[in-house]
């Protein structure tokens, strides 16, 4: 994620660098590895899975619903293939059902996952919407 965000200009350019011989995104891996080890040591694996599965299923359901809305709003756009809308509709319903079950079964981890997901909103506006930032922040971000 850090590598691709860096390539898109949404993260410092350091994380888009690739190791010369191994062809791996080494700076991104060196940042993510200690974070993952810390998360596993702090919590049990099942709590960690519950913590992150909420946002994963929520965004998968929202993305699928967005595709359905896009197909209705722009019916004349060329598409490489078409799928009956029943399949993505059922998938979205199942995704939101999983989100609801996780809210019901483990509200603490789900709430923390939702709070962590909401912290991405200001980061999005600070990093992706860079043109709204003062020039000194933009210069510091490029360095």
UniProtKB/TrEMBL annotation:
Keywords: Membrane, Transmembrane, Transmembrane helix. It holds the Pfam family AA_permease_2. It is a multi-pass membrane protein. Its main location: membrane. It is found in: Membrane. One of its GO terms (molecular function) is L-amino acid transmembrane transporter activity. The chain crosses the membrane at residues 26-48, 54-72, 84-104, 110-128. Signal peptide: none annotated. InterPro entries: AA/rel_permease1, AminoAcid_Transporter. Gene3D superfamilies: Amino acid/polyamine transporter I. One of its GO terms (cellular component) is membrane. PANTHER family: AMINO ACID TRANSPORTER, CYSTINE_GLUTAMATE TRANSPORTER. This is XCT protein. It comes from Polypterus senegalus. The gene is Slc7a11_3.
């Amino acid at each position: 994620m850090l590598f691709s965000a860096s390539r898109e200009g949404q993260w410092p350019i350091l994380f888009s660098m690739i190791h010369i011989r191994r062809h791996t995104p080494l700076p991104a891996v060196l940042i993510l590895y200690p974070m993952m080890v810390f998360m596993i040591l702090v919590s049990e694996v099942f709590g960690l899975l519950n913590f992150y599965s909420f946002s994963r299923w929520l965004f998968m359901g929202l993305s699928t619903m967005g595709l359905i809305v896009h197909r209705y709003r722009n019916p004349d756009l060329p598409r490489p293939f078409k799928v009956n809308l029943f399949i993505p509709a059922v998938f979205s319903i199942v995704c939101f059902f999983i989100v609801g079950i996780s809210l019901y079964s483990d509200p603490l981890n789900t709430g923390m996952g939702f709070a962590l997901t909401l912290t991405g909103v200001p980061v999005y506006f600070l990093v992706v919407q860079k043109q709204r930032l003062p020039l000194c922040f933009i210069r510091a971000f490029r360095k």
